[in-house]
């Protein structure tokens, strides 16, 4: 008999797995989302490196409207006063149809939802209770519906509620004492930057990332500022810490600003139930400083899909060990970037800039620092 799969959460991870199952297998599956609809107006940008584009191409991403995405040629590093330090060529990781891509998150969600929306997605669903029945998992939802499935996939984000039903050990995400402030710049910024590239400006306890998200010349801006507390009503005063370092930056923050506190998952814990798997941020939540959260959500969905397809014994152990290696690699680099982007003393900044200029041109360094992340086989 065909196996039945319940995916909890319709974010990038859950939707990717649903697409892989729909387009490449004959498994029965349903996506259960707690919200009443998909969040399509949340216009912030994401970068997808070649490791995730390669997987998305298997479900038709190469046919996406070309106007709605961008292929940044590289990354320019600046200090917070907009003085260029060095640049990294991103084209070295591209092939003909697998290219480093930036786009609005809503564009990606729109693409991922298309094929699964009507038949495989149910809204307003929150788990109330789970139990084992005849070797399967019975999920009861708060609206008194239920589903009896062979596999449960928790894809419900960093604060995964699915984990709380199946795991005794708590793995509560931790506040990184940093806040992300995001906006979309509609017109050319006054900064001296190449708007066809990703620009990273590094300051004292903060950094700014600006990149194009489509061919409309819209630029995504994320400013990460370290602060001990998150107060959503006090974002303007938090931004003063950045603007004081370069008053020209003030004009960047005139539009609609959204903020969110940065969390990360402290430990990487395996599932304790053979029928339950975690993908995306529910497996591990990363800091955004290597721009790999969505990419890893896509990769984890693909790894799990392949194991389910191959129907191997001991899937749980293989999945966890593979993911653990990958997460550790990405996590280390995200943490190093977070640390290095925010040096406060001018001496450490000068030393960092010297090393960056040197390393960014070293093929062997770039291939081990980024190539291993971007070129997963
Ligand atoms: C500032 C910032 C910038 C970023 N930039 C990038 C970038 O450039 N590149 C990149 O790759 N990544 C980036 N990321 C990370 C990326 O956005 C996330 O890692 C990714 O979206 C996680 O996807 P997910 O599907 O695992 O989880 P989520 O996107 O959190 O989706 C979880 C889904 O589950 C639903 N849900 C939650 N609880 C329940 C429940 N109890 N029952 C049912 N459904 C539930 C939610 O409503 C949601 O739809 C960034 C993150 C931040 C904060």
Key terms for this structure?
seven-stranded mixed β-sheet; 32% helix; binds flavin-adenine dinucleotide; single chain; globular; alpha/beta; five-stranded parallel β-sheet; 18 strands; 377 residues; 26% strand
What does this structure look like?
By secondary structure, the protein is α/β, with parallel strands linked by helices. It has helices at 12-24, 50-57, 105-113, 117-120, 161-166, 235-243, 293-310, 315-340, 346-359, 363-374; strands at residues 4-8, 28-32, 45-48, 69-70, 74-79, 84-89, 101-104, 121-122, 127-133, 136-141, 146-149, 151-154, 174-185, 198-203, 206-212, 219-226, 258-264, 276-278. A seven-stranded mixed beta sheet has the order 6-5-14-15-16-13-17, sandwiched between helices. The longest helix is centred in the last third of the chain and has 26 residues, at 315-340. The model has no long low-confidence stretch (mean pLDDT 95). Bound molecules: flavin-adenine dinucleotide (FAD). Residues 8-14, 32-35, 46-47, 125-126, 155-157, 161, 180, 222, 260, 280-282, 288, 291-295, 297 line the site of flavin-adenine dinucleotide. Flavin-adenine dinucleotide (FAD) is lined by residues 8-14, 32-35, 46-47, 125-126, 155-157, 161, 180, 222, 260, 280-282, 288, 291-295, 297.
Summed up, what is this model?
This protein has helices at residues 12-24, 50-57, 105-113, 117-120, 161-166, 235-243, 293-310, 315-340, 346-359, 363-374; strands at 4-8, 28-32, 45-48, 69-70, 74-79, 84-89, 101-104, 121-122, 127-133, 136-141, 146-149, 151-154, 174-185, 198-203, 206-212, 219-226, 258-264, 276-278. By secondary structure, it is an alpha/beta fold.
């Amino acid at each position: 008999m065909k196996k039945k799969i319940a995916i909890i959460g319709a974010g990038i991870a859950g939707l990717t797995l649903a697409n892989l199952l729909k387009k490449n297998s004959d498994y029965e599956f349903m996506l259960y989302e707690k919200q009443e609809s998909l969040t399509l107006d949340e216009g912030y940008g994401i970068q997808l490196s070649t490791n995730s584009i390669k997987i998305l191409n298997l479900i038709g991403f190469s046919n996406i409207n070309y106007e709605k995405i961008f292929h940044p040629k590289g990354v320019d590093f600046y200090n917070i006063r907009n003085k260029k330090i060095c640049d990294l060529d991103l084209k070295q990781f591209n092939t003909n149809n697998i290219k480093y891509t930036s786009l609005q998150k809503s564009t990606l969600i729109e693409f991922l939802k298309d094929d699964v929306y009507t038949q495989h997605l149910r809204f307003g669903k929150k788990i109330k209770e789970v139990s084992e029945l005849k070797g399967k998992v019975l999920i009861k939802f708060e609206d008194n519906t239920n589903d009896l499935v062979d596999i449960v996939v928790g894809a419900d984000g960093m604060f995964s509620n699915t984990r709380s039903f199946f795991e005794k050990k708590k793995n509560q995400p931790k506040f990184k004492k940093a806040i992300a402030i995001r906006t979309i710049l509609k017109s050319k910024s006054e900064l001296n930057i190449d708007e066809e590239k990703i620009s990273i400006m590094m300051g004292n306890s903060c950094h700014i990332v600006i990149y194009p998200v489509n061919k409309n010349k819209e630029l995504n801006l994320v400013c990460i500022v370290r602060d001990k507390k998150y107060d959503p009503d006090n974002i303007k005063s938090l931004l003063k810490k950045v603007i004081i370092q370069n008053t020209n930056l003030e004009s960047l923050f005139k539009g609609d600003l959204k903020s969110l506190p940065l969390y990360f998952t402290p430990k990487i814990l395996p599932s304790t139930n053979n029928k339950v798997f975690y993908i995306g941020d529910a497996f591990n939540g990363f800091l955004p400083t290597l721009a790999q959260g969505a990419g890893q959500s896509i990769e984890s969905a693909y790894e799990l899909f392949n194991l389910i397809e191959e129907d191997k014994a001991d899937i749980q152990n293989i999945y966890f060990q593979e993911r653990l290696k990958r997460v550790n690699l990405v996590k280390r680099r995200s943490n190093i970037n977070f640390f290095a982007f925010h040096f406060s003393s001018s001496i450490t900044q000068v030393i960092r800039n010297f090393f960056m200029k040197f390393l960014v041109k070293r093929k062997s360094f770039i291939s081990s620092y980024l190539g291993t992340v971007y070129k997963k086989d």
